[in-house]
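Re: the multi-chain job from yesterday

Posting the exact lines I submitted so nobody has to dig through the queue logs.
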Amino acid sequence: MTPTDLTSFFAMGGYGAFIWSAYAVVFLIVAALTAESLSSRARARRLLNQLDTEGENR
Amino acid sequence: MLPNAYPARFIGLSRTVVVWLAILTVVALAVALPWALWLSPPDYQQKDTIRIMYVHVPSAWIGLMAYVLMAACALVSLIWKKPLADYLARAIAPIGAVFTLLCLVTGSLWGRPMWGTWWEWDARMTSMLVLLFLYLGYMALSNAFDDFTRGTRAAALLCVVGVINIPVIKFSVEWWNTLHQTTTVFKKQGPSMAPEQLTALLLMALAFHLLFALLVLVRTETEATNARLRSLGALGTD
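And the result, structure tokens for all chains:
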């Protein structure tokens, strides 16, 4: 790709601002949801493991 | 809580499936994105803004499909009191809400250049906004009671009743004179769009569905684990 090709690719026929905003919003929100899903699962697993270990030690 | 409330076999299986879904989602996205942003041609009317459709339409499909799935789980939980159905419904709600929100936002970003407006109170958009509120209502209600089971039951009832909104969304573009265009893909005569555009759309839809399945399984494990923690007295009251 030449620089001109790249510029026209990002310009998206003049609608670049709308198109890239749409993709950015989708990416950011989906990434946030995925991160939150994984961290909540990790926290729940950790708590359950802690309880199981405490139960064995008692 | 019942001793079998923690679905150990389901969780064990889902952990393996999640790894595969993660790989497949990445592969599907790697193929779909070049098609959506570059390989597919601009539309003769919408020009390049049709590329917004490749994230807008799959978001809408997920928003609708997730609600039907959630309502089915809610119904199973109301009738047969299966804990796993509760966990699934509670796991699906925030995911469905997020994709419905994305559908509204990307639709708005398309509507501004194409219709000249960010928002219009037409039947399709209004019913889609109602869908978002149903998801949020379910989430609020399911966490509104100290008694976990009561909250889940109340929310499940709201969810099942809310299914009436799904056909309203689907047929809104036919029943009312909407600004939103009518069905393009699921038509008797076949989809009315160029094959390259359909390829981009279906590849993106595949990636979105894989990601949806992954998120549901991850969040279901969290719900099941949290329920187990509650029954052990480690998380609030049950």
